[in-house]
Structures are given as structure tokens and as C-alpha cells.
Amino acid sequence: MLEVEIPGVGKVCIKNVVFDFNGTLAEDGLLCEGVAEKVRKLAARGVNIFLLTSDTYGSATRQWQGLPGEVKIFSGEGAAREKRKIVEELGAENTVSVGNGRNDVEMFKVSRLAIAVVGREGCFTGALTAADIVVTSIDDALDILLKPERIKATLRT
Predict the structure, then answer these.
(1) How far apart are CA 126 and CA 3, in angstroms?
(2) Residues 21, 18: Cα–Cα separation, whole Å
(3) Contact 150, 5 (CB under 8 A)
(4) Which of 11, 62, 104, 106 is the most buried if burial means most Cβ atoms within 10 Å?
(5) What pTM was computed for the model?
(6) Over the stretch 17-51, which tens digit does the pLDDT of each residue have?
(7) What is the spatial distance between Cα 37 and Cα 40, in angstroms, rounded to a whole number?
């Protein structure tokens, strides 16, 4: 579990991190360089990892092979609703969501912390406005989680 005390916000305890795949952890269906190592580091700190995706390229399970966490694939219709439901079942108050798409907005709304990634595949503007933190790469998103003082610096009042 990750913990960070944020002035004006309070203590944030992160037990779960939920990731979108395409446009977030992957480009054109291929896992971005360096992601596997950082996901392993995050899991080694006792964080539960979940990969929730509509799997546009049909590659998520293969690309995630050997990495910690659960993979859940949804059909294009209803993916936003399913992602939100899983975050609520995990315990939204202890969950961080990381994504870039329209179907990530609903899980962003309920998560304790939402991180929007504006990568090479773009980012839905609704995801930007629903997020607590916006970064320009998945490396930045993972580094913020691995170095929680960055969360404190960004969110303090």
C-alpha cells in the first residue's frame, strides 16, 4: 500500500491501481518501453494492479503476460460502466485510476485519485476534466505513484 499525507486533503491510502491499456500503458497495442519494470516495482510495494481494457488491438493479454495483476477485457459497449463497477467493488476510496479515454471517465469520477495520460494516442477532453492529475506520459504517471511525494506536491492546497 502507498500512503501520502496531503496538506488540505488528508491521508491518501492507495491499495489498488487500475490501468487502461491502449493509449495509456500501450501505443498501438504494444506495451510502452519501461512500463513492465515500473509496474513490477509498484506491485512489490503491496499495491494491487488491475488492467481494464476494451483491447482495441486484441493484444492486452499477450502484452501483459508475466506481469502482476488481473486483466479484464470488455466489449466496446458498456466498458465505461464496467470499469466504474470494478473500481467501486475494489473500494474506490483506496483506488487510483490511470487512463486516457472516454471509457475511463466513469472510473475517474469515483476513484480516490484519477490520473489522465496525454500520450501519443491523445486523451479525451472529458478525461482531462475528470482527472485529479494530468501527465504527458505513462512514465510520469508511474513515477508519481512510485514517488508519492509528487502527489503531495501536486495536490496540496
Answers:
(1) 28
(2) 10
(3) no
(4) 104
(5) 0.96
(6) 999 999 999 999 999 999 999 999 999 999 999 99
(7) 5
